């Protein structure tokens, strides 16, 4: 299986040397079983993680014990980057399916920043994309209906899975439970169940055990409350003056 390096080339095409650096990350692979923690909130920041296979949830715990999922990570994502700025890990990373991650010690990240400006710029722009995604999610949760939140999440998920070459004929793996969706979208499990039934009634999706198929992506986009952001790609790199 081809390693999912597509996220690393969203804005900057890697040179041969840079590609070799990235391929070297895969030498240190760690398998994680479903629902096992990769790293817990409050633990030392010993690494960030490149997700090779599987789905991972990033979550925060509230004082009363409730969990808030803030991100569902897919193959190709870098996990735990925000915690590099914290005294201890600010999020729990939990495998939502069986997963494979490649730990990268903070020193490896520091070396990239010091010695590989093109790769560093690509990572920087990718983190800005994550910030845009968070802005979008805040808009969904703060200003849209439950159905609109669910539609927006599914469209975002679909587009990311397409980029990872994990969609076939509109169908993709969907291992998230109704509890996961509730924690992600700020809904009760009962409300999620009701909203999924409303989504089924639109006829735009088909759901089966652990899979989802979007039958008409364009029509589903027209039902969304927000327009998906258009990223600049190579042009964003050009704006930075092509540092090398």
TrEMBL record:
CDD domains: CAP_ED
GO cellular component: cytosol
Keyword annotations from UniProtKB, A to Z: DNA-binding, Transcription, Transcription regulation
One annotated GO molecular function: DNA binding
Pfam families: cNMP_binding, HTH_Crp_2
Taxonomic superkingdom: Bacteria
InterPro entries per record: cNMP-bd_dom (IPR000595), cNMP-bd_dom_sf (IPR018490), Env_Response_Regulators (IPR050397), HTH_CRP (IPR012318), RmlC-like_jellyroll (IPR014710), WH-like_DNA-bd_sf (IPR036388), WH_DNA-bd_sf (IPR036390)
Residue ranges annotated for the HTH crp-type domain, each copy included: 144-218
Signal peptide: none
Record PANTHER family: CRP FAMILY TRANSCRIPTIONAL REGULATORY PROTEIN, REGULATORY PROTEIN YEIL
Name of the protein in question: Crp/Fnr family transcriptional regulator
């Amino acid at each position: 299986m081809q390693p999912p390096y597509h996220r690393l080339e969203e804005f900057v095409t890697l040179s041969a040397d840079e590609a070799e650096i990235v391929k070297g990350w895969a030498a240190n692979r760690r398998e994680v079983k479903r629902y096992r923690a990769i790293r817990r909130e409050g633990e030392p920041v010993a690494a960030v993680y490149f997700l090779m296979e599987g789905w991972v949830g990033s979550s925060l715990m509230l004082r009363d014990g409730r969990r808030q999922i803030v991100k569902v990570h897919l193959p190709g994502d870098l996990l735990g980057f925000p915690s590099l700025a914290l005294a201890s890990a600010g999020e729990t990373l939990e495998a939502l399916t069986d997963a494979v991650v490649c730990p990268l010690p903070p020193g490896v990240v520091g070396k990239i920043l010091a010695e590989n400006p093109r790769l560093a710029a690509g990572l920087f722009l990718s983190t800005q994309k994550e910030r845009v995604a968070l802005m979008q999610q805040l808009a969904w949760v703060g200003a849209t209906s439950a159905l609109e939140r669910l539609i927006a999440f599914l469209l975002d998920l679909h587009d990311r899975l397409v980029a990872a070459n994990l969609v076939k004929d509109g169908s993709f793996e969907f291992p998230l439970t109704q509890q996961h969706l509730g924690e992600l979208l700020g809904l009760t499990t009962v409300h999620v169940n009701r909203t999924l039934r409303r989504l089924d009634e639109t006829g735009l999706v088909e759901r089966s055990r652990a899979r989802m198929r979007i039958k008409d992506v364009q029509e589903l986009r027209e039902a969304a409350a927000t327009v998906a952001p258009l990223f600049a790609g190579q042009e964003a790199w050009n704006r930075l003056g092509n540092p090398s």
